[in-house]
Amino acid sequence: MTQLDRRITPVRPDLAAEKLRGQVDAPRFAEPRPMRLVTPAAWIRRSPTPDAPADTQALFGEHFDAYEITDEGWAWGQLATDGYVGWMSAEALAPAAEPTHRVAVLRTFVYPGPSIKITPSEAISIGSRIVVERLQGAFAVTASGGFIFADHLAPLDAAEDDFVAVAERFVGVPYLWGGRTSLGLDCSGLVQLSLAASGRKCPRDSDMQEAGLGEPVADWEAEPLRRGDFVFWKGHIGVMQDAERLLHANGTHMLVVSEPFAEARARILEKTGADVTSVRRLV
Predict the structure, then answer these.
(1) How far apart are the C-alpha atoms of 210 and 151, rounded to whole Å?
(2) Which helix (H) or strand (E) is 58 found in, with range?
(3) SS3 state of residue 200
(4) What is the pLDDT of residues 81-106, one digit of tens each?
(5) What pLDDT is recorded for position 1?
(6) DSSP state for residue 38 in the 8-state scheme
(7) Angle at alpha carbon of residue 43, lines to 119 and 203, rounded to 5°
(8) Is-same-fold flag (16-95; 101-155)?
(9) What gap in Å lies between CA 115 and CA 86, rounded to an integer?
(10) Which of 2.30.30.40, 2.60.260.20, 2.40.40.10, 3.40.190.10 would CATH assign to domain 16-95?
(11) The NlpC/P60 domain covers which part of the protein (predicted)?
(12) Which residue from 231, 162, 232 is spatially nearest to 198, judged by alpha carbons?
């Protein structure tokens, strides 16, 4: 049997998704319960405890297929956006609804009424998915009765022309392991969110991205790098802004930074002993 990646395969020793029947052994199988996130963001954890390690986040409005919801208030399932599997607080979830729009700016406020002078009820990040029921003046009114400045939203199928320009908006945002919001994100989260804004699906983790994004650039040291090239190290990814500068979220600066690629490469090599493993380019 092919080794399954448990990060993106909804299977546990005691339970598996019904869609995996015949592919995995499990004492019981479950159909998904379609849910959506109704908090600004929520951690997806490895086990159902608040201090369990978390590898990624779900964003407001993203769909989550719950295969189990426990009496203790935890949901185990799979995030529809990138297939990531884990545990989430069930309080963050509600029955699924089809979004119409997405947040197109780094972060926007949700107001309880049609005025920017009212204290916002929450703030939601780029990529969050919204069900807009109607427009009222300058505001989009959501299915839950919130008011969002309409110019901060884009139709769900709208796409940015330049994903690197999206990534550049994050410069100065803190590095956060597993993060996927404008309050904090990691290297692969930066790439994933930026590509999503340009209408491209992207795996969550850097090893998945190295295996699945674009095509390898065989002679990348012999020819100039291009804007949008992905540069990979073991466990890390950055995006070239041009032939010389690299944009990446990293643990050295604890920020998203733009810096000379040659300097970043030399520092990472000195610090970890690891050099670039590949460069990949979107076709």
Answers:
(1) 34
(2) strand 54-59
(3) coil
(4) 999 999 999 999 999 999 999 999 99
(5) 40
(6) -
(7) 115
(8) yes
(9) 38
(10) 2.30.30.40
(11) 157-283
(12) 162
Task: Tell me how many degrees the CA angle 156-161-162 measures, rounded to the nearest 5.
Answer: 115
3-state secondary structure of 88: strand
Structure tokens at 86: 């884990």
Residue 180's alpha-carbon distances to 33, 229, 244, in angstroms, are 24, 21, 26
Domain with residues 163-281, CATH architecture: Alpha-Beta Complex (3.90)
Q: Are strands 93-95 and 255-260 parallel, antiparallel or unpaired?
A: unpaired
Domain 101-155 CATH (choose: 1.10.10, 2.30.30, 2.30.29, 2.20.28): 2.30.30
Backbone φ/ψ region at 172: left (φ over 0), alpha (ψ -120 to 50), beta? left
Can you tell me the distance from the alpha carbon of 121 to that of 107, in angstroms, rounded to the nearest whole number?
A: 14
- Tell me, what amino acid is at 33? R
> CA distances (Å), 74 to each of 89, 90, 92, 96, 219, in order?
5, 5, 10, 17, 48
Nearest in space to 15 (alpha carbons), one of 78, 72, 60, 83: 78
Question: Taking the domains of the chain in order of start, what are their residue ranges?
Answer: 16-95, 101-155, 163-281
Furthest-apart CA atoms within the chain: distance in Å: 59
